[in-house]
Structures are given as structure tokens and as C-alpha cells.
Design a protein that fits this description.
heterodimer, A: mainly beta, 17 strands, B: alpha+beta, four-stranded antiparallel beta sheet, two-stranded antiparallel sheet, globular, disordered N terminus
Chain lengths: 233, 120
Amino acid sequence: MFSPQLADYDGDGRLDLIAGSDCCQDGCFYVFRRRKDGGFAPRQAVKPVFPPEQFGRVRPDALQSRIAVADLNGDGKPDALIGANDRKILGVVYGPLAGKDELIVQRMWPEGQEPFRSGPSGSFMAVCTNPVLADWDRDGLPDLILGVRQWKDDWRSRGVYWCRNAGTKREPKFGPSRLLVADDDGQATTGICVAVWNGDGRPDLIASRFERSKEGGASRWHQKVWVYLRRGG
Amino acid sequence: MRALLALAAAASCVGLGLRVPAAAGDAADLAPPFAVSVGGVPIDRADNSNFDLGNDNSFPWVGDFDGDGKLDLLVGQGHRGKAEGGHLRIYRNQGGKAEPRLAEPIWFHDQVPTGLTPLG
């Protein structure tokens, strides 16, 4: 897979292209650095390392690289939130990030205090989209937005949630999850982004979702890109 | 309607084992969605003849790809067949900042020779 993100990865003031990838590549993600002429340099693989003393044993099939880049500690250098499809495998790498082939990931939350804890009856929750760091509530701090699925006889997407950053510019602290968009049994959100779609200054949610429809008796899959504009105020 | 959505948001948080009151920025702050389209046709990445739910998920990103100051749409996806890795489509914005109008997509790997991500 190719989960794209435009962010200043190397801190040179230009937007680079970062691509999360799928399993079986040691959880690598890929960076295409923006050149001065506006083009992109060739792909560079970066391997996140999850120390077992912090994260336990990480299964290779859990290493779908999911990455969000933003300045989390206010030092002016880009940091990275890196995860996998296990909710517990979501940690942080503080910048500088550029020029490294491996990044050592640190836990962001103590064990059991991750923002996505177990669901009802202890059902298992997991991240199912790329994470996004964006100032959703416009208080000057990056908040965390991501999609979550739940195990209940089978994996089912619950939808998109956000966790408010109640910390400071120097020290992020993401609060409990709050629902933004709910998925039902016939649909699942696969990727998300936050951007000001219509130029009004308010951050909007852009999400891709697969969903099944019945057309002429046949079942068809769709995977569209949806824009959820913020209301006024 | 707004009150109902706020109630639903709060109820959902309870469903996750958390008790958080709804607040600004929650579901009630979002308008009903619309599908992004090109030339009036919604972008739809599902290929029903060869659709793989596990590997064919798509990932949107909105940002200034070409440096013209306007937001473009990027849509990444899984491999196509067994020989190629992850792909990225670029939909350039030919409209304005307030009213994006997206052009037909181009492939990122046509711009950058290593623009496919390896197969998993």
C-alpha cells in the first residue's frame, strides 16, 4: 500500500512526501525528499525499531507502517508518530528525523493508558487507518485523529476518532477518544486526512471508505473519498 | 439534529469504555459528507473485477503537491496485481483555494522513477 503524507520531514521548509507501507517489509516507511526545484528525490526506506523492553514482542505482520509527522515537542524540528495495526504499537520519535535509516520508537503512553483502550466487554480495539496529527480544535497544539476497528467475532470498523492534545507545546498529552464519524457494518474507513478543503480556515476531515451496495441484485464495492466540512463557528 | 449527533458522539465514547462529554470539534461539528469527484464523477477506487479488501484500501491526502499554493488530492492504494507495489495518484487542483476542481489523475511513479513502494 501507499499511504501518502506531505510534511516537512527533514526540516528544510519544503514539503516532502512520506509513504507508509504494508506488512512484511520490516515496517519500513518511505521518504521522497522535496528538491529545491520542486521535484522529488528517489525513495529512501526508513525502518522503525520498536524496542521489545518497551513494546514487547512485535509481530512482523503487525508492522504496517503508519506514520504522522508534526512538531510534537515545540522545538521546531519535525517529530514522527509511528505505529502499526496493533493499538499498543504507537510510539513517537523526536526529531531530527532526516538522514537516518532507522528510527528508535519510544512509548508515548504507559502500558494500559493508550487512548484506545479495550471496548465493551474487553473487546479488542486496533488502529485501522493512518494516524493524523493536526490542530483539530485550533488551540495551537496538534491533536491525534485516527480510525479504529473492534474485534467482535470479526473485525469491524468503528469509525474515526480524535484525541485532544491537552498537553503543552513542549509535552503533548492526548486525551480520551471522541467520535467524529461512525462506520456501520457495511463500511469501513481506510485512510484519513485533515486539511482546510474550502479555504475557510477551519480544518475539515477527508476520508476514504469502502462500502458495499446492491445494484441490480449484484453486490458491488465502492471506495470513495469523502469530505466532511466543519460547520461554522 | 445537532443535539442528536452530540448525543450519539457522547454515547459512542461511553461505548469505548470512556466517559467523555461531547465538545467542540466532535461529530456534531461536521456537515454531511460529499464525495470528491473529477468532472462530476465521484472518485471510486474499487475495481469490482479484482477487488482485494485486504490490500486495496485507499488513503487520501490533501496538500500542495506541485507548489502552486493550492491544495491537491493524493490517493494512495495497494498493489495492482502481484508484480507491483503501492501506487499513488495525484489529482491536481485546477480550481481555486475555496473551490477545488480536480484534474484527471497522474501517477506519482511517472514523475519519480522509484515512486512505487515495494510489495509486502
